[in-house]
Predict the 3D structure of the following.
Amino acid sequence: MSHRIFGTAFSAVYPLYITKVERKGRTRAELDEVIRWLTGFDDAQLAAQVETGATFEEFFAAARLNPAAERITGVICGVRVEDIEDPLMQKIRYLDKLVDELARGKAMAKVLRD
């Protein structure tokens, strides 16, 4: 089953991530750092993903997932991220989890699993 989020443009959700972290005193630069860490995108590649309106499916297809991403654990939307079977949904939830941790004020080194 294909989830609706797979076809949603990353550019539609990105401003919501920015608002969420800024409301909690974090910056867009910190958010971008987290996204770059997870996806392997550089600044230009991340900007291109936003500008082209890439769907989450296209966004993660172009990404080179950080090998440390498997260390992202915990609950997001009532589901343990490490237990999600669909690989694309798991990547989306990894991103959600990192954004939540950033917004909650967790130290960047901990968010980035350093």
